[in-house]
Amino acid sequence: MNVLGIDIGGSGIKGAIVNTETGELLSERHRFPTPKPSTPRAIAETISMLSSHFSYTGIIGCGFPALIKNGFIKTAANIHQSWIEVDAARLFKEATSQNVFILNDADAAGLAEVQFGAGKGKMGTIILITVGTGIGTALFTQGKLLPNTELGHIKMYGKSAEKYCSDLVREKKDLSWMDWGKRFNEYLNYIEFLFSPELFIIGGGVSKKFDLYSQFLHCEAEIVPASLRNQAGIIGAARFAAISQD
Ligand code: BGC
Q1: Ligand 1 centre and the CA of 132: distance in Å?
Q2: What's the rounded Cα separation, in Å, for the pair 6 and 63?
């Protein structure tokens, strides 16, 4: 099935048409900057612009950077506070006149990586960690997703882990890859202590720079970069819509 997948991030809102059986992109990826402030109305307009850009009709899958329950937004760590308790599935349906299926952005990236990417064919416990403005996580065991794990918010040194070792923190504090890598390794060790996964997949912006910090990461689990890179969120969102519709 061919589905429009959308990935809403802190800096960009990206979409493409995806073949949900193979994970292939059937169109160019199109990106709009995330509106500032990132209010429900402003983001809904951008989603509508993306759908129009592709002249698309059909179901839409959308990854969103928050805890999601039945299409409702429950948290707002890196988006406008007015999102809390908004029925995003309904709002985006009104904006695009299409049925929209919403899930957490890291869960979307995880679905794609486990189905088509770095986690393909692997069993056991797999944790995908997306590192960007915030930190998002997706936890799979025996191929099944436990949604909304939000492990970017476990506490380290009294605050959310994402405030200690996200990519934004690296940029803001001008940390070297070694200094950031050591911080991120502490985080990985903490997650490993809690869940003993077989595999960590590192996604988000830092996945492209894996060679610059991988020597500072030491875990029992295997650690690999996401193989679908910044397309994973789009592919997983489209796949989620296709599976949810069946
Ligand atoms: C949000 C998560 C999201 C992650 C990555 C965090 O701040 O709480 O829901 O997955 O950022 O975007």
Answers
A1: 9
A2: 6
